[in-house]
User: Which sequence fits this backbone?
């Protein structure tokens, strides 16, 4: 197998596109997961609080828990997004390296 075939530019362009699609997929999946988890639990919590406490107390506790939960979820997002971006950058750098190797072998 020739070096030019091994480091084919089309192959690495395709891999970069796959990495980019993976990043988009992971971000969308994270948003869907957070959205469903957050709003399903909050709706159940609000109903529980309104049944057992006065409306003013229930709203106060609900807002406190909602703010705590949303800040917790926002603090977790970088752990999903940063590895995805790292994968995208690594794939792009591999593509550029393959192009340099292919250009070097042509000369």
Assistant:
């Amino acid at each position: 197998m020739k070096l030019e075939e091994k480091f084919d530019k089309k192959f690495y362009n395709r891999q970069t596109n796959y990495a980019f699609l993976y990043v988009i997929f992971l971000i969308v999946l994270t948003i869907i997961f957070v959205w469903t988890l957050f709003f399903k639990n909050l709706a159940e919590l609000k109903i529980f609080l309104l049944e057992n406490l006065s409306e003013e107390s229930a709203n106060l506790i609900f807002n406190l828990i909602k703010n705590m939960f949303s800040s917790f979820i926002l603090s977790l997002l970088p752990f999903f997004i940063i590895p995805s971006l790292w994968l995208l950058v690594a794939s792009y750098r591999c593509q550029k390296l393959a192009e340099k190797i292919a250009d070097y072998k042509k000369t």
User: Anything to note?
Assistant: Residues 55-106 form the longest helix (52 residues). The mean pLDDT is 72.
